[in-house]
Structure formats: C-alpha cells, structure tokens
Design brief:
With 203 residues, this protein is an alpha+beta fold. The chain has a domain of 135 residues. It is 40% helix and 21% strand. The protein is built from three helices and five strands. A five-stranded antiparallel sheet has the order 1-2-3-4-5. A hairpin with a 2-residue loop joins strand 1 and strand 2. It starts with a helix and ends with a strand. The relative contact order is 0.12.
Length: 203
C-alpha cells in the first residue's frame, strides 16, 4: 500500500486537527475535592440546624419552668401565710358545741385589709385562699382546717371544686404540758400551740 493511500485512510478516521487527550490526574482530584467539600458543608449545616433547634427548645422549656416555679412559690407563700394566720386566730371565733364537730362555711383565712377574701400577691400572681374549720375542743386535736388556694381569677365555687393547691392542717390549742379541758374557744395569741400538716396536695 502506498504512503498516499495510508494517509487518506487516516484522514477519514479522525477529523483534521482532532486529538484525543486523556483527563489529567489533577482534574480528577479537583472534582473529588469539590464533592467532599459539598458533603462536609451539608453535614455541618445539618448539625448546626439541629443544635439551633435544640437551643430554641431549651430556651422555651426554661421559660416555662421558671413560670411554673414562680406560680408554685406564689401558691405556697399564700398557703403558708394562711396556715400561720389561722393557727393563732381561729375561725370560727365563737365556741362551737362540744363533741358535735361541724365544718364551717368556707371563708377567710385571715382578716383581709380590704374586700372579703384572704388574698396575697406574690411574684406577679394574686392568690386567693379559703379556709374551713372543724373544731372539737375536748379533743387534743382541737381544730382541723382545710385550705384551698387558687388564682384570683377563679370564683370561690370554682376554687373549692378544683383548687390548684389544697392542704389539711391540725392544731392543738392546749398549752404544752397539758391543762384543764377547754370549754371555750382560745383567745389569740394563746392558740395553736401544736401544728401538724396532714396533707399538701397539688392539682
């Protein structure tokens, strides 16, 4: 075969000036680095989003916890004030019939400065407390008092039916070391020598 025919065949196989060049190693490595960088950025972004969501939830939980703690402190403070008030100033103030204990109608636990409800404002919460007393002077436990605490936005009926905090406390109005049997209600401040917390119940 002549040299001219060989050249003609070669020219038919490939366009003039065309030459196949294999990809360089540097190009392949640059593509791999870009892919790895994208995977890394996406992974870091997902971690950051998860941490941001966790931090937001934690902040919300902290706010809710603080609010619940403040309300519990307000209820507890109002309840403790009511217990100490009625311990030394009994209600009823009149002497009930001996051996016929009858609960008093729920009412004030202490004489309010104004209005008709024993009310205390603490930590931004205004709490009403209602007390009812069962008294039997011949017994060592002369008085059993049930207390109900609710926000001031609740009516008395609503509070008694579903109090946020309720407590039962027993008082001994006899002096330490005993004494003659009482026939009349103690006179403040000579009352409440003994105190026993029977129950403290959150709703």
């Amino acid at each position: 075969m002549s040299r001219e025919s060989t050249l003609a065949q070669v020219s038919k196989r490939a366009p003039r000036g065309w030459r196949r060049t294999p990809p360089r190693r540097e190009d392949r490595e640059a593509g791999a680095v870009i892919i790895l960088a994208l995977v890394y950025i996406i992974s870091v972004s997902m971690v950051v989003l998860a941490l941001a969501d966790w931090a937001t939830s934690d902040l919300h939980n902290t706010a809710a916890f603080n609010s619940a703690t403040e309300s519990h402190l307000a209820y507890s403070g109002a309840m403790n004030s009511a217990i100490q008030a009625i311990r030394y100033t009994p209600d009823p103030s009149a002497t009930p019939t001996p051996n016929t204990p009858t609960p008093t109608t729920p009412g004030t636990c202490w004489v309010p400065a104004s209005g008709t409800v024993s009310q205390l404002a603490l930590d931004g919460y205004t709490v009403n407390v209602y007390c009812t007393t069962t008294e039997n002077l011949p017994l060592q436990v002369t008085r059993t008092v049930t207390l109900y605490a609710c926000l001031s936005t609740f009516t008395e009926t609503q509070c008694l039916a579903n109090p946020e905090l309720s407590a039962v406390v027993q008082f001994d109005d006899y002096p330490g070391g005993g004494g003659i049997r009482m026939t009349s209600q103690c006179t403040p401040p000579a009352c409440g020598y003994g105190e026993t917390l029977v129950s403290w119940t959150w709703n």
